[in-house]
């Protein structure tokens, strides 16, 4: 590609206002030039119906749309990365039945008229949820106690856990000697975390103790896979998330944790591309877990639906609770049909690792609850390594502590370590 599937076009929102193209989106990713959060990149994801092949649509791409095509088969033993693509207008994920395309509105209309064998969706922009800062010097690790991690004989030993986020501080002193694998899916940025969010989430899911010996991580003996899918400014393209998931699953990660998301409106469905790759992950022995989102303000009677991709049926959605075991004020709710909260965990005033020189930080959000659950899933995989993902998920639900709260807010309850 002359530039890695960079969109030249725009997508029409429901109110017919034009939003930024992928080129503008990329500029904002690196320069943080837009105070408002745009919804789409300007590109599209085409998801084939189950059992359909790309044979017919390939011909349409080539003969009617004039697309130059790239394939995931071009990446033999390496992770899919847009920066390595050349002169392509479409990237075909052969094993998933998904294609990422850069086309104008006329081309999209032609494609839609060709067949009913697929769904076309605008590619979303994904963000770090708006986490709520807490008092910086409070080193509260109440979540480790509440989830009974301290009492568990399991440590996630040798279980591969992927955290897809803003990357990781590879020089963090608490992780010296740990088995860490990393990859960046953000064009022109290394995996080194210049944001902080990713390092915090990896600390909770896979960390151990701080410089004073205080335990803050769940699966302290797990194998860490740090995937940078969001830029140092905290945003990324939906395809970057797909590429990160694909990398994690191909490397045998049993858990893939995603404290990220895109807003979902009341009545809006889940993204077919995310659901497709989540089903693929389950078939390969991997469980995807994602943050429900921080868009609600319950104290003002404002409730918002579970974010994408957490709203997908095949991805575990995590809500946040506070130290009093109440639902966090910001935590989203199961509002849309078939888009539920699955489980809850500690998400208020959570202390974990942060890039040096700060080294540690206490923040709040469903982003903080999600890696608690990811770590517990690693403990469950260590306990029953030959189980299926569905058996592990069922055990997670059985072990959960029931709370006197609505299922639409906390699902099965508070996640508890085995």
Report on the architecture of this protein.
This protein has a 7-stranded parallel sheet, sandwiched between helices. The protein has a 6-stranded mixed sheet with strand order 2-3-4-1-5-10. The model is unreliable at 1-20 (pLDDT under 50). It is globular and about 65 Å long. With 418 residues, the protein is of the alpha/beta class. Helix 5 links the parallel strand 8 (180-184) and strand 9. It contains 10 helices and 16 strands. It has 2 domains: 22-124, no CATH class; 132-410, 3-Layer(aba) Sandwich (Rossmann fold), CATH 3.40.50.200. The active site is at 165 (charge relay system), 197 (charge relay system), 367 (charge relay system). Belongs to the peptidase S8 family.
The helix-and-strand class reads alpha/beta
| CATH class descriptor of the largest domain | Alpha Beta
* Radius of gyration using CA atoms only: 20 Å
Helix content: 10-25%
Oligomer: single chain
**Largest sheet entry:** 7 strands, parallel
What are the salient characteristics of this protein?
disordered N terminus; 418 residues; 2 domains; 6-stranded mixed sheet; Rossmann fold; 7-stranded parallel sheet; alpha/beta
């Amino acid at each position: 590609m002359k530039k890695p599937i960079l969109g030249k076009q725009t997508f029409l929102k429901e109110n017919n206002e034009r939003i930024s193209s992928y080129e503008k989106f990329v500029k904002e990713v690196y320069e943080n030039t837009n105070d408002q959060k745009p919804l789409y990149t300007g590109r599209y994801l085409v998801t084939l119906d189950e059992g359909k092949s790309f044979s017919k649509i390939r011909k349409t791409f080539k003969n009617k749309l004039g697309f130059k095509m790239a394939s995931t088969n071009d990446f033999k033993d390496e992770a899919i990365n847009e920066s390595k693509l050349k002169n392509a207008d479409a990237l075909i994920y052969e094993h998933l039945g998904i294609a990422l395309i850069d086309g104008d509105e006329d081309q999209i209309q032609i494609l839609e008229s060709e067949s009913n064998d697929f769904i076309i969706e605008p590619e979303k922009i994904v963000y770090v949820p708006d986490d709520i800062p807490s008092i910086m010097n409070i080193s509260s690790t109440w979540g480790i106690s509440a989830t009974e991690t301290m009492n568990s004989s399991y440590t996630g030993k040798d279980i591969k856990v992927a955290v897809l986020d803003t990357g990781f501080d590879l020089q963090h002193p608490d992780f010296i000697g740990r088995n860490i694998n990393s990859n960046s899916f953000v064009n022109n940025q290394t995996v080194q975390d210049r944001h902080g969010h990713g390092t915090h989430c990896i600390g909770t899911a896979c960390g151990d103790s701080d410089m004073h010996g205080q335990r803050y991580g769940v699966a302290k003996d797990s194998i860490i896979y740090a995937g940078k899918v969001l830029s140092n400014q905290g945003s990324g393209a939906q395809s970057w998330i797909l590429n990160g998931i694909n990398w994690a699953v191909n490397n045998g990660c049993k858990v893939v944790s995603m404290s990220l998301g895109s807003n979902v409106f009341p009545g809006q469905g889940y993204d077919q591309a995310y659901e497709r790759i989540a089903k693929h992950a389950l078939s390969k022995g991997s469980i995807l877990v994602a943050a429900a989102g921080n868009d609600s303000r319950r104290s003002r009677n404002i409730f918002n639906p579970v974010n994408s991709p957490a709203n997908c049926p095949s991805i575990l959605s995590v809500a946040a609770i506070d130290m009093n075991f109440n639902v966090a004020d910001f935590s989203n709710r199961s509002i849309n049909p078939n888009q539920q909260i699955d489980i809850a965990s500690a998400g208020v005033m959570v202390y974990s690792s942060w890039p040096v020189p700060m080294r540690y930080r206490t923040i709040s959000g469903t982003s903080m609850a999600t890696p608690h659950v990811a770590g517990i899933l690693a403990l469950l995989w260590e306990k029953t390594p030959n189980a299926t993902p569905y058996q592990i998920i069922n055990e997670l639900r059985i072990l959960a502590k029931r709370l006197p709260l609505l299922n639409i807010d906390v699902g099965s309850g508070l996640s508890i370590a085995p």
